[in-house]
Hints:
Elements: H1 10-25, H2 30-45, H3 48-52, H4 56-59, H5 61-76, H6 84-92, H7 99-106, H8 113-135, H9 160-180, H10 184-205, H11 208-230, H12 234-257, H13 265-276, H14 281-298, H15 308-317, H16 334-360, H17 366-382, H18 392-409, H19 418-425
Helix pairs in contact: 1-2, 1-8, 1-18, 5-7, 5-16, 7-18, 8-9, 8-10, 9-10, 9-11, 9-17, 11-12, 11-17, 13-14, 14-16, 17-18
Amino acid sequence: MLSFSAPATRRLTAARAFAVAALCMVPVSTALTNVFCGLFAAALVISPEFWRDLRSFVADPASLAALLILAALAVSVTYTVAPHHKAWNWVAKYDKLLLLPFAVLAFRHSNWAPIVRRCWFGTLCVILLLSTTNYLGLTAIGPAYATQLPLSRAWVFKNHIAAGMFGALLFYQAADLALAARTALSRAAYAGIAAWSLVNVFVMLQGRTGQVIALLLILVVAVRFVLLLRRESALRAGLAAGVLVLAGVALVIAACTVHNGRLTKVVTEVQQYRQSDAATSTGLRLEWYKKGLELYRQRPVIGYGAGGLESEFEKLTAGKTAAEGQLTSNPHNEYLLMAVQLGTLGVLLFVNLIVQIARGSRALDPRSRHLLLAWLAIFAIGSLANSLLLDFAEGHLIVLLAGILLGCGERSEALPRETSAIRRSV
Length: 426
């Protein structure tokens, strides 16, 4: 006879609901994300399941990987070159890593994955709608829109960098749902949302990180689509491949020729930086990468400690002007930031986190696996040009989404009757 897990307690059910709410608030509000994360942690800690399953903190590879990064940063305070109060403030920026093991524990043996995916998809669709109406001048909604910058017309809650990456993720999730749809109507609806999100990323938002990542995701979707058609007809697969290539070329041309398009400005910004040390967006990144690599070569094993990059950059920028004189605590590259703070050890720990999340995704259902791997790929690639684990929205999304879905992926002897358990607990 099949044996089922005990129903979740009301406290655990409340903790799960708060975690999903926190996830959906990530692209919307920093304050609300913090509120729901706090409620999630509080509700989970007072639930009996938390103390009973506490060993999952070290038994789950992804949870352990997150805790190791946080522990390494805390230990680095003992040798950091930064003042200790600044170092601890810097470690606190990574306390979001605790959410990953908390979420894995909270969602173990649960059936919440479909709920999580639908809530997340719905949130991004609402943001897509508001971004479009803002861009068209029909609305003026959201705190980011009020910045009145030339590029902020399509912003709602986040700037073009974060919103562009979220838009790329929406494209992939919608495309994945379209490929898996069983009816022509639902397939067309999901495909329409995927196409709409691409227009938002390439034309409205103008976030270069999101645009580059979206191009890679388009390639992935195209390959999946062609392979799907190939099972039915090689001719249809070939025709589809040709159409997708032409559509991709048209999209790139549109992105490169749109008025004030930022993707085409990369070459110009690099030339300005090399010729006159101009403090352009791309030029500053190149300057910070050069300084960061120089610091890493000096201390390649354990680095300068938490917060040490800013202290060392102060020395390297002293008396300099233009791009060379720009001080920062964030080099806009998470791999480099880890390398400077924790040396090679830090880079290995960060890569290990990505690898363990990817390995854990193999146990998930197809829709959850594609969603998690899509954001993991965006996170890993985007961290080459941004410090995404340090950044609030992107960092919270990777730990919450990974923790929740990996927790749902864990199975006991039999799948628990979660739906009925939720009904009984409220």
